[in-house]
Design a protein that fits this description.
Blueprint (H helix, E strand, L loop, with lengths): L2 E6 L8 H13 L4 E6 L8 H12 L3 E5 L13 H11 L3 H35 L4 E5 L1 H5 L1 H4 L8 E3 L4 H9 L8 E5 L2 E4 L15 H7 L10 E4 L2 E2 L10 H5 L4 E2 L2 H14 L4 E4 L11 H13 L5 E4 L8 H9 L5 E6 L3 H6 L6 H13 L6 E5 L8 H18 L4 E5 L2 E2 L5 H9 L13 H7 E2 L5 H13 L18 H4 L5 H8 L2 H19 L2 H4 L10
Parallel strand pairs: 1-2, 1-3, 3-4, 4-5, 8-11, 11-12, 13-14, 14-15
Antiparallel strand pairs: 5-6, 6-7, 9-10, 16-17
Helix pairs in contact: 2-4, 3-4, 3-18, 10-11, 11-12, 12-14, 14-15, 15-21, 18-21
Bound molecules: cobalamin and iron/sulfur cluster.
Length: 542
């Protein structure tokens, strides 16, 4: 095979880092293979089929690699209006609100299904109009829902779970995929492979002039946040998380000089100033300290005046790392505290102590961190009680007292149940989910289950959230948010995802937590003897 067309399937605009790494990897090993990248997100819906057809006609690829990044449309967080509609539909006391929410919900379901249908039509277009081309598919969304999606792809399409470098190389060399995580449909039979040794990342670095030549749409990303991967794999076991399933549990590091070379090329050649470490986890443990430290030191030594962010375990930040982070340009951060109760955290196997998380925030504050922090809470996780909910409210107050209330934005991020996670397994065993359920099939009942917020705490948690979301003029913060959710101002105002950013602009998460506190306290005051003897474990922090 001599030519590869990569098609990044449409999603909300985000730098298509995965396909850029794949194309770069193939180019280093097979410089004679012609390659082209097409980003479908940059076309309006109505022009996408034509863009696929035109690219395939002009480029005549032997192999077409589809990359499917996101499917999730019903996000379990408060910035997404679908959560508000769902809560209104299930919990609002005003019947009119329920009716309005049901219409909005139907519209969203319609959009969800038409988006999936449209996305699947592109591989079918290739299969019908360019039958000689081999089709491959991979990416985060494909990995998450491979068992369901493979049934919807043309027969013969090769699906790959997780990283795709070695698998694509093998396909163009005509080698067997037996040691890769492939998935294939032959009639009604599904065949799967297991990855042997995962690839080491010691030679991975991007040749930017080459990339620029095969990705003419790169101009659309000038001024945007550019993804850089510094490691693959996460050793933790957080019950709801899919990342170790996608990337593996073994952490593989890229050498810091190569990581910083990526950054500096984008900095000097494309003028990029904002970067996102796309690692499942930037600080994966103490073993990662040398690599993280060297990356940040090199950013400083090369005088790269950037702003960067990524998923960071605040509990692992040391005073030295905090100083380096701040000096090298760390921007706004999203911290998944999840709960203020150590019991809930332990039950989810989160592997960190709240005290260490607070320490990390303290070190950042001492180092002069001036960014904002979104504090993600997954209320009503398993083992949640009224007491642990109050502890979550207190944990917000602790973090706000350390970093300053004006910097800390709690966000309600309910647990979303994803296939191939420990949480899904537990809920199947408990009978909360039924065996063989289809995670892509959304109905009012399944949405209610998958946005995990079970009885008995569900109704007053929802009430607290709805009360906060309805107050449209919370404590607005006019400053620009620069973390994961931001994009260049010309695009859509300061924020990439207008709906998502609502939680920060209105600071409605804070209102939701405080409303929750109020509701629980008033429930308790109405409940006479049973609780009065119990000792409160809540310590007022602010
Ligand atoms: C970093 C990250 C983000 C960052 C991105 C920052 C940036 N500037 O790039 C932020 C925080 C912004 C983000 C946001 C979201 N994300 Co995100 N994100 C990730 C994460 C952790 C890494 C993705 C990444 O860039 N990896 C590094 C690159 C190199 O890998 P890659 O793109 O996956 O490509 C590799 C393989 O997939 C494969 N591959 C890719 N394409 C192809 C094609 C073929 C043919 C083959 C063979 C292989 C192949 O090979 C590549 C190289 O090895 C993944 C989880 C994970 N651990 O993978 C979730 C993930 C991709 N995100 C996900 C989602 C849902 C989202 C959101 C929609 C969430 C939300 N509701 O708001 C948003 C919106 C994204 C957008 N379009 O704007 C889901 C997607 C699955 C799903 N349920 O649909 C994932 C898998 C997390 C999850 N929930 O499990 N995300
Ligand atoms: S939540 Fe973060 S730390 Fe936990 S398993 Fe997922 S990536 Fe790793």
């Amino acid at each position: 095979m001599n030519s590869i067309l990569y098609i990044f399937l449409p999603c909300k605009k985000v730098y298509p880092i995965g396909v850029t790494y794949l194309a770069d990897f193939i180019h280093r090993r097979k410089p004679d293979v012609r390659q082209r990248i097409l980003d479908l997100s940059l076309f309006p819906d109505a022009q996408r089929s034509r863009a696929v057809r035109d690219a395939a006609t002009q480029f005549k690829p032997d192999l077409v690699c589809f990359s499917w990044r996101d499917i999730q449309i019903f996000s379990p967080h408060e910035g997404d209006s679908s959560l508000e509609h769902a809560f209104n539909f299930y919990f609002a006391s005003n019947p009119l609100k329920r009716v309005v929410a049901s219409f909005a919900g139907l519209q969203q379901l319609y959009r969800y299904y038409s988006h999936i249908r449209a996305t699947l039509s592109y591989p079918w277009l290739i299969a019908k109009e360019f039958p000689k081309a081999q089709i491959m598919m991979g990416g985060g969304a494909f990995t998450a829902f491979a068992d369901q999606l493979i049934l919807k792809l043309p027969e013969g399409a090769i699906g790959i779970l997780g990283e795709g470098e070695d698998a694509i190389l093998k396909v163009i060399e005509g080698q067997s995929l037996e040691n890769e995580r492939y998935i294939l449909r032959e009639g009604k039979t599904i065949r799967k492979g297991q990855q042997g040794a995962p690839a080491l990342l010691d030679a991975l670095t991007v040749d930017l002039p080459y990339l620029t030549s095969i990705f003419p749409q790169y101009r659309e990303y000038l001024g945007e946040s550019i993804g850089v991967q510094s490691k693959r794999g996460c050793p933790y076991d957080c019950a709801f998380c899919l990342y170790p399933y996608i990337e593996g549990k073994r952490v593989r590091y890229r050498p810091p000089p190569m990581v910083v070379k990526d950054i500096s090329q984008h900095y000097h050649q494309w003028g990029a100033r904002r970067f996102w470490f796309t690692d499942a986890q930037f600080i994966t443990g103490k073993e990662a300290y040398p690599q993280c430290t060297e990356i940040l030191e090199r950013i400083l030594a090369e005088k790269l005046e950037i702003e960067w962010s990524g998923y960071i375990r605040t509990s692992l930040i040391t005073p030295e790392l905090a100083k380096l982070m701040v000096r090298s340009g760390v921007g706004d951060l999203e911290v998944a505290i999840t709960s203020g109760s150590q019991v809930v955290l332990n039950n989810l196997h989160m592997g960190f102590k709240l005290e260490r998380l607070y320490d990390g925030c303290r070190y950042l504050a001492e180092a002069g961190f001036k960014g904002k922090v979104i504090l993600n809470y997954s209320l009503n996780s398993p083992k949640e009680t009224e007491e642990s909910l109050l502890q979550s409210v207190e944990s917000y107050k602790v973090v706000a007292s350390i970093l300053g209330e004006e910097r800390v934005f709690p966000l309600m991020f309910f647990l979303g149940i994803q296939p191939n996670t420990d949480l899904e397994q537990r809920l199947l065993e408990e009978g909360y989910l039924s065996a063989g359920y289809n995670p892509l099939m959304l109905t009012p009942t399944s949405i209610k289950k998958l946005l995990y917020n079970p009885a008995p705490l569900n109704s007053f948690i929802a009430k607290a959230c709805l009360r906060a979301w309805e107050r449209k003029d919370g404590s607005r913060d006019p400053r620009k948010w620069t973390g994961s959710l931001s994009q260049a101002p010309k695009e859509s105002g300061p924020y990439a995802d207008k709906s998502l950013i609502r939680g920060i602009e209105g600071n409605s998460g804070r209102d939701a937590l405080l409303s929750l506190e109020e509701i629980i306290r008033s429930r308790r005051s109405l409940r006479p003897a049973e609780d009065s003897g119990k000792k409160s474990v809540v310590t007022p922090a602010s």
